[in-house]
Amino acid sequence: MPTPRRRLASTCIGTVTAGLLATGAALAAPEDDRPEGSDIAMGAYLHYGTPGVARIPHLSRWLGGKEIRVAHTYLPGDQWAGIEGRVSFLADWAEWRRDEDDRMFVLNVPMQERNENRIPDYQVAQLIRAGAEGQYDLHFRRLAERLVSLGVPDTVIVLGWEMNGTTYTHRCAPDPKNWKLYWRRIVKAMRSVPGQKFTFDFTPNRGTDAIGWTKCYPGDDVVDIIGMDSYDQAPGQTFDDQITQPYGLQRQVDFAKAHGKSISYPEWGLFRRGDNPEYMRRMLKWIEQHRPLYHTISDYCPHGVWQCKDNPESAKAFRDALTPERPGPVVPTPVVPTPVVPTPVVPTPVVPTPVVPTPQVPTPAVPTPQVPTPVVPTPVVPTPQVPTPEVPKPSPVVPSPEVPTPVTPSPEVPLPVTPSPAVPTPGVPRPSPVVPKPSPVTPTPTPVVPKPQPTPPKPLPQPTTPPVNSQHWCVPLNFGEWLSKLVGTQSVCFKLDFRKDSGFWPF
Predict the structure, then answer these.
(1) Nearest 10 degrees: CA dihedral of 92, 46, 298, 293?
(2) pTM attached to this predicted model
(3) Which of 17-26, 244-253, 412-421, 452-461 has the largest mean confidence?
(4) 490 is in which domain, residue-wise?
């Protein structure tokens, strides 16, 4: 597997990028047999620094708008300062990650400085033991603090990748036991930083290499993902060999399932067999079938498909599989007129309904009994005849009394006037009218009707006769025969006092 140093040098050639863009533009349209796993989070290693961030949208356009959800880079392993994250490009990657919530930032972290200096095994063993004793904890704590401060506390840490090989100083084979202790100390130191949410990815090379990678596994409590770096190279001549070989692709899937972990492919791509579209299609099918948490192809020569013009067929297979399917043009469905078949009119035969005569049932006449109404005779009550008295009309002339002039001291007393014989004498009541008794009409007994009794008339007031030689003088009033009978005899009386002290004494 090529070293990161060679990767970084190859990606700095600007002329290669322009050629790759031209190559991508000439590729054919995607095929219809697109893998269903194209929605899995994917990305590509495009460059370790800021140019890698800038190339992500170009790769997305080359893939027909495919969303690139994974950004992948490496920390330099030449000095501890780089491993602590004191590099300027780290902020650019962190900014890209923060722009969208569903993005993922994958960071390969070396476990030793001078990581690609070909340190002999005995020195590697000494460095591993020093790490297991905690001498390097501070470097990894500082890295964790740096990532948290940049706003990427959920970074996927690919720690000590390809530890089963012979390339890196952080390899496992010189001292597997202390190597596992060293891994555990690093994870503990980084998880001690407040705010961290790191995910740790244990990623060996495919195959046995220097040591079976399961012998370096540090434990389920400090590992979250079982990854694998797999390129198109030996051991194995075919893709099927890569699956079934010891510690191959199938072993990775089985081991992760047994430990309850997700899988990943942080590095994969072409290598020693050149442009191999069959490998590209088989690897993408494998990813579709087992659905890793993420995968990132190494896109630079000789591994790449977008930034390497040496692999056009593999680039086409890659692009066909991952370009989002776009809906084709809407072809209107031709409207086929339905022939109108006239329905024959079948006349409905008219069947005459027979008239059934309704029998007339005579209604018997029931005679109504005549009940005689009894005649009740009405009694005739005779009305009594009351004679109306004749009232004479009064005379219009009323005599005024004459007042005599006194001649002598003795007043003259006038003689009393005798009342008219037509006026009844006071104290003698008038005769009551005779009311005839009713005679019964029929012998039928009749109710007893009380006889009407005429109300006797009230006696008229009679004038009082003054005493003889009195000072009172009364003059009778004559209203005529008719009115006198009605109101009775009336008189006007007055008093004359001719005494000396009365005021009327003339002398």
Answers:
(1) 40
(2) 0.61
(3) 244-253
(4) 464-507
